């Protein structure tokens, strides 16, 4: 049996007439990942011709990618200086708020009080108090607000969160010094949303900007949930990272 194939222009497959791919999105992905991993020197100028060759991409896709990253504030383009990296993303551990490459993150408490309990917290944390503690804080890295957390937990954890302010902080340190429990697991849910007015004010951004949302339930080593948190991170400043062992994945064949 014979099959006939209609001739297609190379661009129909996402390439150019010379076989180069023309997606600026792909160039952005490869460029940012190359900078993060050190394949491209973060302090060196970015040259269009070199990027075209490195990523086998058209000049238009490289130029568009550089322009898009410049508009997003990640690159700076100046005459006689060239195009250079202006700001690197901050990698945040998937279930933590510390930087993946040793970058320090601090908090500032913006609100703390008792609030009437509600089914979500009482069911997820298996507590039956009339009230739960709410602590809201912002995350600060490189002298810039990068995120926001609302945490709910039992009033029996009565430590003062402001004691953790003003120094580099990790979730491990928070669990050890504030909750005084042995850490076990974290159940994480990731999403995205647009910033509302109050959140924008706390983060120092314009309303409607993209945010990463993260809900986490932290449990002790013996499986008792003790805190549920709702985080928001600036999508133009933060990326969430984790190393996962594929051997831990369930077999669903």
Write the layout of secondary structure elements.
Layout: H1 24-37, H2 48-55, H3 59-71, E1 75-78, E2 82-85, E3 90-93, E4 106-116, H4 119-125, E5 131-141, E6 144-153, H5 171-179, E7 183-194, H6 197-203, E8 210-220, E9 225-234, E10 238-241
Parallel strand pairs: 3-10
Antiparallel strand pairs: 1-2, 4-5, 5-6, 6-9, 7-8, 8-9
Helix pairs in contact: 1-3
Protein name: Putative GntR family transcriptional regulator
GO molecular function: DNA binding; DNA-binding transcription factor activity
Organism: Gordonia rhizosphera NBRC 16068
Question: Would you kindly provide a written description of the structure presented here, covering whatever features stand out?
Answer:
This protein starts with 23 loop residues before the first helix and ends in a 12-residue tail after the last strand. The chain is an alpha+beta fold. The chain contains six helices and ten strands; from the N terminus they run αααββββαββαβαβββ. It is elongated, with a radius of gyration of 23 Å. The protein has two domains: 24-85, Orthogonal Bundle (Arc Repressor Mutant, subunit A); 90-243, 3-Layer(aba) Sandwich (Chorismate lyase). It has a six-stranded antiparallel beta sheet. Strands 1-2 form a two-stranded antiparallel sheet. Strands 3-10 form a two-stranded parallel sheet. The chain has helices at 24-37, 48-55, 59-71, 119-125, 171-179, 197-203; strands at residues 75-78, 82-85, 90-93, 106-116, 131-141, 144-153, 183-194, 210-220, 225-234, 238-241. Strand 8 and strand 9 (225-234) form a beta hairpin. 23% of the residues lie in helices and 32% in strands. It comes from Gordonia rhizosphera NBRC 16068. Residues 21-88 form the HTH gntR-type domain. Residues 1-22 are annotated as: Disordered. Pfam families: GntR, UTRA. GO terms for molecular function: DNA binding; DNA-binding transcription factor activity.
């Amino acid at each position: 049996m014979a099959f006939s194939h209609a001739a297609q222009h190379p661009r129909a497959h996402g390439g150019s007439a010379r076989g180069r791919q023309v997606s600026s999105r792909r160039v952005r992905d490869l460029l940012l990942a190359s900078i993060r991993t050190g394949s491209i020197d973060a302090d060196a100028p970015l040259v269009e011709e070199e990027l075209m060759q490195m990523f086998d991409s058209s000049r238009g896709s490289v130029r568009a990618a550089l322009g898009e990253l410049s508009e997003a504030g990640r690159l700076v383009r100046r005459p006689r200086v060239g195009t250079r990296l202006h700001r690197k993303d901050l990698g945040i551990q998937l279930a933590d708020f510390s930087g993946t490459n040793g970058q320090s993150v601090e908090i500032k408490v913006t609100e703390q009080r008792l609030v009437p309990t509600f089914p979500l917290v009482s069911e997820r944390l298996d507590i039956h108090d009339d009230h739960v503690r709410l602590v809201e804080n912002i995350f600060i890295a490189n002298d810039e607000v990068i995120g926001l957390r609302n945490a709910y937990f039992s009033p029996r954890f009565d430590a003062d969160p402001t004691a953790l302010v003003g120094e580099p902080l990790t979730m491990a340190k928070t669990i050890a010094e504030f909750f005084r429990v042995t850490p076990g697991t974290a159940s994480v849910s990731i999403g995205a949303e647009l910033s509302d007015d109050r959140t924008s004010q706390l983060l120092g951004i314009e309303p409607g900007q993209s945010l990463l949302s993260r809900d986490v339930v932290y449990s002790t080593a013996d499986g008792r949930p003790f805190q549920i948190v709702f985080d928001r991170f600036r999508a133009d400043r933060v990326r969430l990272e984790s190393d996962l062992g594929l051997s831990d994945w369930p077999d669903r064949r």
